[in-house]
What does this fold into?
Amino acid sequence: MTLTEICRFLDEELKIEQIHDEAMNGLQVEGRPEVNNILLAVDGACEVFSAAAKARADMVIVHHGLFWGKPAALTGHLYQRVKILIENGISLYAAHLPLDIHPKLGNNARLMNLFETTEIRSFGKYGGVEIGLIGNLKQMAYLEDIKEDLETSLKTKCHLLAFGRSEIKTIGIISGGGAGLTGEVIKEEVDLFITGEPKLPAYHLAKEGKINLIFAGHYATETGGLKAVAELLQDRFSVTCRFFDLPTGI
It folds into this structure.
């Protein structure tokens, strides 16, 4: 399968050109024209790229790519990362916000799939796009049970702010760094907000808004989308796909 075909498919499926994002989404580094072996990982880092080289991967797909906002000089750690890719002929494809919000493959959708929910809807505007999901649980669940289930399913350690009711009916989800939208969640009057990385202002907002908040880890909440993409590409293109798990504890 060619690199061009895979990139074209991903661009269309993830709506790369339609979603405004501070990150550069799509093909970031071009390697070999033929792709048979793909490694997927959350972060574009030297350890990931070295593992790809060792596995003789033709392509790496990440959530957190190398280029954000303004142009960056190829020096220091950025140079080292690109150097590994180029020396080994490995292509790098990144999908940040488009992978968070995809209705089926997205990180938020995959997190919501951990629960039996109804009436799922989007919320929480970021860059003009609603990036979060809200759903009603089919059956009421206890807050501590949800926390334990998340820790088991995501292989993570959750940080719980229990400022609301212990019986949960409605949950809001934004993977990764969604804590900045805690105020938006409070307006939606959900019982529990699940996100990734803790942020200090979210503590007082949650307490004053009388809402429960679970920080399940930035990394842990953003593995589901890549695993879903791996399954899709493997089925569609008959390429070998492997998710490279490199937990950060953050």
Notes: The chain has nine helices and eleven strands.
